[in-house]
Fold each of these.
Amino acid sequence: MQPQIEVGVLGATGMVGQHFVKFLQGHPWFKLTWVGASDRSAGKKYREATAWRLAGQMPAEVAELTVSDCKPGNAPKLVFSATDASVATEIEQAFANAGHTVVSNSRNHRMDADVPLLVPELNADHLGILPAQRAKRGWSGAIVTNPNCSTIVLTMALGPLKQFGIQRVLVTTMQAISGAGYPGVPSMDITANVVPYIGGEEEKMQIETQKILGDFTGGELRALEAKVSAHCNRVPVVDGHLAATSVEFSSKVKAEDLIAAFDTFTAMPQQLNLPSAPKRPVIYMPAADRPQPRRDAERENGMACFVGRVRECPVFDFKFIALGHNTVRGAAGAAVLNAELMQAQGLL
Amino acid sequence: MQPQIEVGVLGATGMVGQHFVKFLQGHPWFKLTWVGASDRSAGKKYREATAWRLAGQMPAEVAELTVSDCKPGNAPKLVFSATDASVATEIEQAFANAGHTVVSNSRNHRMDADVPLLVPELNADHLGILPAQRAKRGWSGAIVTNPNCSTIVLTMALGPLKQFGIQRVLVTTMQAISGAGYPGVPSMDITANVVPYIGGEEEKMQIETQKILGDFTGGELRALEAKVSAHCNRVPVVDGHLAATSVEFSSKVKAEDLIAAFDTFTAMPQQLNLPSAPKRPVIYMPAADRPQPRRDAERENGMACFVGRVRECPVFDFKFIALGHNTVRGAAGAAVLNAELMQAQGLL
Amino acid sequence: MQPQIEVGVLGATGMVGQHFVKFLQGHPWFKLTWVGASDRSAGKKYREATAWRLAGQMPAEVAELTVSDCKPGNAPKLVFSATDASVATEIEQAFANAGHTVVSNSRNHRMDADVPLLVPELNADHLGILPAQRAKRGWSGAIVTNPNCSTIVLTMALGPLKQFGIQRVLVTTMQAISGAGYPGVPSMDITANVVPYIGGEEEKMQIETQKILGDFTGGELRALEAKVSAHCNRVPVVDGHLAATSVEFSSKVKAEDLIAAFDTFTAMPQQLNLPSAPKRPVIYMPAADRPQPRRDAERENGMACFVGRVRECPVFDFKFIALGHNTVRGAAGAAVLNAELMQAQGLL
Amino acid sequence: MQPQIEVGVLGATGMVGQHFVKFLQGHPWFKLTWVGASDRSAGKKYREATAWRLAGQMPAEVAELTVSDCKPGNAPKLVFSATDASVATEIEQAFANAGHTVVSNSRNHRMDADVPLLVPELNADHLGILPAQRAKRGWSGAIVTNPNCSTIVLTMALGPLKQFGIQRVLVTTMQAISGAGYPGVPSMDITANVVPYIGGEEEKMQIETQKILGDFTGGELRALEAKVSAHCNRVPVVDGHLAATSVEFSSKVKAEDLIAAFDTFTAMPQQLNLPSAPKRPVIYMPAADRPQPRRDAERENGMACFVGRVRECPVFDFKFIALGHNTVRGAAGAAVLNAELMQAQGLL
């Protein structure tokens, strides 16, 4: 089957934009035909405007596209947004206002009350807020967002456990350097070192997690009332964020209940057989010392969450370690899966 | 002043033993005159028996010592134990029975009810159990231990906060490769990777912390009743263990109270001006992204604990990051400071 | 097409053996049906006998094979040898004597006068020595070897330049930790460090290069008379060996001649369309700072050699940098390509 | 003895400037009383104008200095230059013209025919060109430079061998990230990777080496006629540049001659007992796998060159590995030693 749906990428020349370009290569439904970037790049070929930094070659069919500026007009109806936070608010709203569906990786609208912060395995029903979004904002288009790259790891691991009544979550992340883009973290800061601080990251993990795991009441998105606290650290790892997590539940559960919940977890993306959906969204690894970022993050095309070391926690009920690929499931892959869900549900 | 007190090191040829040899170099009170190791090494010169792996040269005056086997007899009264856990129980008991004071870095006797697990800044009074130890075991000597290298970081940071009523502690460590000795962690496991598992480490941190922060009642060592849960991870850092810590207190406190408690903390080693005591045992670093292992662990000769990022925790009361040098304050330096305290108190 | 030719792996449970098992997975011609290892493993399932250390899962169809001891008998006619050098001489000779074709990655027979040290793109004609090998040794089978993992990078880069008359070669390698197997290099030795020594490596590079680039006269393998000197270093890189190379030629050449020679180089594996042959054996990268091990070694399934920075050398004629994947093209992939060539030429 | 000579640092707030500030702390002769930087910093306290990035604290006595702009006037007669190459030509010349002695780490004037490229152990007599410099330029002051951080390692290792008639030198460097300053090399480029390119570095090593090892004829600085070729690579090491070196001599020598030359090498800085001079400028390490950057670069306060692995080279006469600390002996320490030599010789 040939891809039928033309798509664009806003902010296509930057690092996140490049991840979109790479992830969309060979996509069975979506065909990248439009790339938008700043005025400085507009009018150039994509290959001229872009310092390609990813492994592998720049896709040949994208290399020859002419870069447009980030204004609606000739862009396809579906656009992925990889725009920088400094400009994303204005650009994304302009596109939504002009009738585009903006599936965004930027943080700007994630916490807006009328914008879904979507993880298709966890809260597909949150898309139900879109009519309210359009009504309130007077848009013919829409904005849908995906979470921050560390939040996605935590929430995918917590999703299967929501049934047990999550009360309190304490998480410490060990995050890969690719999460900071390029040039990102100076090597003088991180070589044989850990930086115990990532600006704004802890707040994002805390509030995004509550929103994602919350409920759509039919009228509004109601955040989960669980308390969440995050310690975020940068470690000298290329790809893959780890989350050392302790959780308190309202119900009595056993370790094997948690493991069974991970092992059997499946959701709408799997049922709809979406092209980018991992066969199993959460994979429990029984080995004592797994998952590990360098060895495991790229499995399942980087779209699954890997969990290990479920054990009792002397302070809360259980503790475990979770891993996800920050530039795939934590960025471009997340957004593309969001768009696939919307397409499968007739929302594009 | 010339060092007057002759000391020996049990297990002197191994990695921890080498740290003792290095740390004792130039010590104002203690003169290393005796090195013990396995039968395989006994009779050789120390320089012949030892594959020296530390930065800098092997101390010239130790290089020419003849290695003894690890049996009491001609050893000095004060011996530091760097023996492997597989043989430490038997060797240390034999020396204590023969009248030696064994100041040990090995884990074997740490949790014995009649053995002090000593951190001079925190529980100097725990040495009060020694008469009971001698009486019960029929020893003329004694065994005194120091904690595991990750425990020391956590407990030194918690010590100044004990006054606020520590209820619950959740800690995630990021531990340096030097903590695993040599050859230790294979580079294939840890290069650009994190290993979210260190065998036995979490249990040690949990129970040792309770014992160290507990009280000596006059008759027995009573553990602190706080709950402690640890996630232990190995990261590609050479020296320095980080502990991302959340704490719940029984009293109402503010962030500035914690910072003041760190800044003003001083204890017996400082009051006695012990040679290896850091001027300030806990140093609060106000920069947003400190402490960091590569940049900070070696400050204060590696004998202080560095704390940063005190902030409110949405789940418990406060969270912060703590750092200590695992092979100095976490091993040889800890034991030597223990011996200095005993000497200053007339217990040798 | 289903694979038709049954093959075995000697030393299948070790690291190199695991690379063979992984590389052979899904091979169109060869089906792995027999795994040999030491007595300690014999009789166990492969999955029981093997601590699998590679990325990805152990191939399911191999996991259930029963490990044999490394003696000829029920093994397939074609066996790959990943045996340790300490036992390879005896084992490989026993198999060759018993009629097996032993395609070996071990170093033991590489420099034997009657054993091909085969790189199919460079010296396919060296297989012509096999009748002499069989005659001299009285074997019905044969031994064919591939070079050391650093030699292959150098020789593949030099191959296209042989036409210009190679006189002198000075090469400095920067070699990945995976080249030392598991546990291999201790992390304490290589984290944020370089070890300027790899035992025996320089000698291997020097003499193997001369043999590989030499000629088969019809009667004997005659080494190239060029002088070769190697400096070998271990660097903290996971996969991919770099070779900074200066070369003196007998003919006058220009930089563009070298680049054209790399770009147009093709040889028998490409002409025969062997399954594991890279489309282009040597790929010249024009970017100023490429090739790089982490970004480039895995391209082309790890089977090509990447060259960059061809420029004039003030001491010799030209200098350049070359890169190859040490555990793929430098080990298992090299041997499998050797076997493919032999199969295509009717030599199995 | 109290330091008597007031000194300034041009470009004091940058990374190299910080290395000067750190290195001058506690200097017995030189007292840092003046710091110059760009207009943006001028007028601020040094502690306000500077993002201190080095290990340890900013020296307290420097922290309170007020930053001047980089114009002569109130600066001390002796100034060290850590100015950026983009502005160094103009600034350094203005200071020299105004009567200052500019001891510079910048590259701008290194290759000027009338400017000494000074390594006190190797070419102290090159200072003899200063009268000609002053005469030609009409300066009352002067400019003296030190070499690039990789050149210094190579030349200090070659210095003791000059007596054997150096004909050809082929060197491959493995250079630390600190050589690129801050933010310098992005971690995405160098983590678990090697970058086989450092802009301009190879040319600098080639020509600077010839100038340093050349002779002062009385009238001019005549470059050594040896041919030098460099391959420069960036490796994930914090401090310490390695140089894998092959050398051809005009005289017949043996390995023991080279080792003796290294071991016995001493020169004017040692004879004058200059404060920053290493006791032995070149230290030969006999262990098979030394020197190593992480373990050895900081020895001798980072001021010595370490050499190892002297062995025959099949292409040239001998090969060896050399190591030096790039931010100490390769930058600030080099310049300070230059000034010490000038002071001891009455040239300040």
Amino acid sequence: MNDIQAYMQETGRKARAAARVLAAATTAQKNTALEAVADILDASRETLAEENRKDLEAGREKGLSDALLDRLELTPARIDTMIEGLRQIAALPDPIGEIFDLKYRPSGIQVGRMRVPLGVVGIIYESRPNVTADAAALCLKSGNATVLRGGSEAFHSNQAIAAAIREGLEKAGLPGDSVQVVQTTDRAAVGAMITMPEYIDVIIPRGGKGLIERISREARVPVIKHLDGICHVYVDDEADPQKAFDVALNAKTQRYGTCNTMETLLVNGTVAEDFLPRLAGALWEKGVELRGCERTRAILGEKCLPATEEDWDTEYLAPILSIRVVEDIDQAMEHIERHSSRHTDAIVTENYTKARRFLREVDSSSVMVNASTRFADGFEYGLGAEIGISTDKFHARGPVGLEGLTSVKFIVLGDGQVRQ
Amino acid sequence: MNDIQAYMQETGRKARAAARVLAAATTAQKNTALEAVADILDASRETLAEENRKDLEAGREKGLSDALLDRLELTPARIDTMIEGLRQIAALPDPIGEIFDLKYRPSGIQVGRMRVPLGVVGIIYESRPNVTADAAALCLKSGNATVLRGGSEAFHSNQAIAAAIREGLEKAGLPGDSVQVVQTTDRAAVGAMITMPEYIDVIIPRGGKGLIERISREARVPVIKHLDGICHVYVDDEADPQKAFDVALNAKTQRYGTCNTMETLLVNGTVAEDFLPRLAGALWEKGVELRGCERTRAILGEKCLPATEEDWDTEYLAPILSIRVVEDIDQAMEHIERHSSRHTDAIVTENYTKARRFLREVDSSSVMVNASTRFADGFEYGLGAEIGISTDKFHARGPVGLEGLTSVKFIVLGDGQVRQ
């Protein structure tokens, strides 16, 4: 066993020990810790800025792109948001210990379920250092210990945040090891983290598709993963034209780089000639490039570029939209079945039966009627916060809040009952 | 790619196609299919007996043990149970399409969750052919396609049951490929099944610990697994002596070979001298061998054999019980933390605070107060049926009924809302 593996095993062992204490921690202790971390971060703004400067300088020397340097920077506003986030998570209801479905059985026992932490959560993420505080806070509130492995370019920033978290935890009488930020930039640490089922119960990777695919392939523990967001809006022939216009425009242009942004618009052939020119005008005005099928181009003309087969499977994350005219809801759902990444898909229709069919038959983590795909988000859904969006069906699906970081056990209350 | 791999890929492809149809199938269609299969099995008793005889003869020639031959046999009573099981599953409420937590958000959208099938479930099991019908029925009711791989010794029996299932499915207008029983005894089929995430969404192994450990190690899809059942009963100093006697005796002796049978009894030192002799007498009368710690033996004498360290970690599945005298609830919970397989653990106490602590702090799939561990069972819990008991924390924990075979998606109902 080499040094990194030994170090990670030791980190895992400490996390497991801390997890036992956290599972029994009171709501007050966890909230006190979160408030303490917020206060300490607030008082450490200078240190944070200083450590962040080291990362930014090293990043500039290494020739990181401006976009990456921007994500790396801990501006005062971002520190504010980080602190505010901690306080918001302290204010959320504690999911742990919740008892539900407690029912009497014919045998006389009362059977119910109690929400419990998962144990130890491993988070592997890339450049943004604010993830350190966000992810640690969500895991702490849900009674889990955390092992965080951030990007090497944010090393100093992450360590500074980690020190504040440790101090806050200890102030609240919780183990400092409840949140550990890996203190090495060696890539072998990731390999070790994802293959220690005895110490880590679940891995949540936050980063590009390449990172997530590699981790999923090699992990020996469950992974809550979020791959592409190729989202669709289908405008039905019975859609209200104004709702269709509003939803389609918002789903594409409210933000371009997010996973719940629409990438492909499907329009029923009966209404395409009425609907498309007005929408295309608004999109072009905002600088969105349109790529259409033949029928779309017959309506919109040459300014709409031809869509290739590849376009239907592309997450642009950019001001580009592919458009296809379809016969009916069946063809729309077939297209979605084939090309959707099963993140979020929406129908716009006034027809009750088609709305019900779409909701039931489209197999995506969020399925919507007459609403913008941009709503697929933990805050908008009322989860209070979000550690990621799962495109898996196992365990957690869609936006993952505190509940996705928990498990449930059965509890049985009796009066001496025995089985016959 | 060799022949077996190609065959399994083709099986997986067919299962995936069937799963799409099943996901949209109505409750009536699924129930009609289950009833039809029950009727066909009822009408095929002779064929079933004949095919089962082939397996039994081959088994005898291969020198299978009497216990294995017994498990392999499809007696008329077992066929009755299998048919009755199908009808019971038809009578259960359909979990698919259930909508819950549908709430309005400040943005005006209404967000809820809908229960959906997992997709394709792979079941790998050993000798008992009745698993073929039970597992297929649970998966079908929950809208999943199934690929079943039974033990080679039950090959003919399983194929006969598979033929009846296919006939019933087709009679109800559902794809015959909804339930496929692998038509080869080649072990490579298992290796292929557990490494096809594109076609199989979850694997449920049913069999010995060796099988389950091997599958978990090599699987590239999620596994709902059930390892040991090392269950404890802790008799507190504030236990009602009669309840403690009843629960301990029942937990050990109601059945010896089940995973929810107590394997270790922990007794508070204050009451051990009063409690143990009477219980030991009753257990010895039933032929149970006792293995105790030093304090236990000081009370029970030489007839109680000495327990070794290994005993605390052994699932006997036999009339053997290990007994340890402990100081208090903390030492009892420490013992459980170290030695329990996290299946089912119980406390017997009249003390409110200790009951609450035990429920909260013991990290097992079922935690009980004043009830026999033997209640840890899908039927006793009111799940209607059980496809297995999960000792994992991810996705499903404890007895797994129809709900454990489902996922949920978010649904959003709007009136044209867009995100600000």
